[in-house]
Amino acid sequence: MKKLKCCEVGFDCEGEIEAATEEEVLRLAAAHAWQVHQLQVTPEMAEQIKPLIVEVE
Q: pTM score > 0.85 for this model?
């Protein structure tokens, strides 16, 4: 399982995204960013976010 915390991306947000794959985390993170923060994630931003995705058990 992979996990991304929105606060680690730089937002004052308690949101956490978990999914089976890095790609799914990125897809869900992009949806969250748009719905909650009105921010569209670009491919360049996605590349910067990837290292922040951690493995959880």
A: yes
**Which of 14, 51, 6 is closest to 31 using CA atoms?**
6
Reported as a single tens digit per residue, the pLDDT across 24-43 is 999 999 999 999 999 999 99
Q: How many CB atoms lie within 10 A of CB 24?
A: 13
Domain of residue 23, residue span = 2-55
Number of structural domains in the chain? 1
Which one-letter amino acid corresponds to residue 9?
Answer: V
Phi and psi torsions of 2, nearest 5°: -110, 150
Residues in the chain: 57
User: Which is it for the CA torsion 44, 45, 48, 54, positive or negative?
Assistant: negative
Contacts of 27 (CB under 8 A, 6+ apart): 19
